[in-house]
Write a structure and sequence with these properties.
This protein has 14 helices and 14 strands. The chain has 415 residues and is α/β, with parallel strands linked by helices. The protein has two domains: 4-168 and 305-374, Rossmann fold (3-Layer(aba) Sandwich); 169-298 and 387-411, Response regulator (Rossmann fold, 3-Layer(aba) Sandwich). Strand 8 (244-248), helix 10 (251-264) and strand 9 (271-273) form a beta-alpha-beta unit. Helix 3 (48-68) packs parallel to helix 13, helix 4 runs parallel beside helix 5 (118-131) and helix 13 crosses helix 14 (354-362). It is globular, with a radius of gyration of 21 Å.
Length: 415
Amino acid sequence: MLTRRAAARCFATGAVSATIMGAGFGSARAADKEIKIGITLPLTGTQAQGASLIRGGALLAIEAANAAGTLKGFRLVPVVLNNATSTAGQYDPAQAATNARKLIADPEVLAMIGPMDSGSGKAMAPILSEAGLATITPSSTNPDLTNPKFAAEFDPSGKPIYFRTVTTDSYQGPAMTNYYSDTLGVKSVYLLDDASAYGVGIVDTFQGRARQKAMPILGRDRLDPMQADYRVTLNKIKALNPDGLYYGGDMGAGAKLIKQAYEILPAKMPKGGGDGLLQPEMFTAVGFPACAGWYCTTATPHLTQNPKVQPFVERFNATFHTLPDDYSVTSYDCALIIIGAIKELLDQGKPLTRASLRDAIQDSATDTLQGRVQFDRYGDLKSHVVSIYQVVKNTRYPLNDIIHQFKYIGVAPTS
């Protein structure tokens, strides 16, 4: 069995060896047959900490199933692959596509958890579709991936293989628009994105809702995550004096944006973004006071402070010596759904194949940490809850405590 100390060391260093993570992770008998589950995340670079939290959730569910002998005669083996490259400094769609091909080349890989990013998802989905390999993402939210209008591009096989335990940016972006307008009283806004599939997509949906609400958009710019200085753009925004700033993207550009916005933009101006900002890097790469006051959303109910989820939080912290976030929970739920679908096939004596497992996932209704999860016919979660948070310094807890330094505001307004 992988000890807690060894697990923590792998977690902290971003190690991605399938041998380390797969060999004996759990206490199932060595004679059991293996079922491999791919896990693909950007485990190095600017997204590494958030990705590691997602990986931890999936691994805990797999470990628990192996230890309990949930799949009698079978042992689950996680195959962990890194979607990031040093060139990109974060996730790299080309590497994600390479990893998809590696997984489908192994006939023992029957399903996948991930990816974290919609850009990786767009690169992987066509490849996974052609092979009939189902994946469940705990965090990628671009709606195109499951939109039937884009089925020829992302689902060429005709049967959905891209499932989610979160809602999409069709809900997340507009929910923050509503909050800006209805709760914060923002009358005009400036928009920024980081050129990623996720960043562009979520700002598009925020902007669409802003137009519906007749909220003036004073401008929109694109930030290059590889650049170090956004001060020219921020000074332009300052001169235009919008009521609010909204950023769509990850912490690669986000960390630098937040630091420099603190120096240039008025402190009273509401500033926020999507779930790309609700990451440990908000504290490790930015820190207080620069990050204080920023708003962000998650495409899921707030889970880590739910009393029913506390045993998971405690186990996660005991294993990895760090607190989980809400997407650690949705990742755990991804694994629960896959495990439940495998068990159903085994209990019914049905063949265990990629195709049969895909069908079982599509039809599943699984009790998870976030409640009962069901998918629509396109692979999307039937629930559309979006949660809102604000970074508020809480001196009673460590300054890198991602549960308590992101203050939960509530469920976002949907209309």
